[in-house]
Amino acid sequence: MIYQWLYELSDTFSVFNVFRYITFRSMLSFFTAFFICWVLGPYFIRKMERGLFSEKINEDVPKSHLKKKGTPTMGGGLILLCLFIVLLFWIDLREPLVWGVLGITFGFALIGFWDDWLKIRRHNMRGLPGKTRLMLEFLLSGVVLFLLCYFEQINTQLHLPFFKDLSFNLSWGYVLFGSFVIVGMANAVNLTDGLDGLAIFPIMVVSATLGVFSYLAGHFDLSSYLGIPFISGAGELMPLAMAVSAASLGFLWYNTYPAQIFMGDVGSLSMGGFLGTLAVLTKNELLVPILGGVFVIEALSVISQVFSFQLTGKRIFSMAPLHHHFELKGVSESKIIVRFWIVSLLLAVLSLATLKLR
Known about the structure:
- Helix content is 65%, strand content 2%.
- Helix 3 (76-90) crosses helix 10, helix 4 packs antiparallel against helix 5 (130-150) and helix 5 packs across helix 6.
- It is mostly helical.
- It is globular and about 65 Å long.
């Protein structure tokens, strides 16, 4: 934690006093993560190409996707590398909430890596069995949330958006509920990651927005003024959120249409787990359907398609997830991507507006 060493110099040089401010370190985290991702991107892509870590295309997708076969995957590893470097520089690793986020993020990354590796080794889309993957995700999320609740780093209250004082104590049921939010978000991001740049931009937007919520929740005066729960130590999650947001922006440089590299499950599961954990630890679990609306709608389109076909034998959409439906309706891939980006920005602004509606 280099920033602590720099801050100690403030006894001699007052200018180093700025390192004690979370907002300043958040700015440093943002630019550090972006430039590392931007600079290392070409080298990382070449390594993935030489290592034959290429995408396997599912046959059950629009035929236009066949041209993407052979594009390097596992690009989420680059985002995680940026996050790891930022941790060493600008994050206070003495904060338990930080370790909670990191535990789930890197744990989900390992699950995603295992899934990607099996697909590459088998030369098809049969990765880790779905039930096994979900079991591992719930187990990891449950253990982390149990420990945070047991050591009283977070409480078991479920707060309702738009209301200042309305909350429900779920007791230990909160561990199950929080795990559902985290696992749901991780898999929703995974389903959304089907077009070039489609998922990474909303990840960037949602991460930055949750970073703002983290800072406000960790500031006693601001949280009291806005009527949101005060969470000791939550402010330290803001530099983490800014690092992920910036690394996502740097990754978008190479992932934008036509993509030079894909995130892979190592990226989509870890980033989804990261966003879900931030939402839980900042008590914004019920805001997820709004803030992460793009991910939620994509997941719901798959769920409703499966249920409809099983119950009636008919499909609601031409193909699920939703972005494939629009592709088959003749909308160009680039237009779908940009329009989903616009929706994610609008939902982020709407989520921030809820701060004044409590």
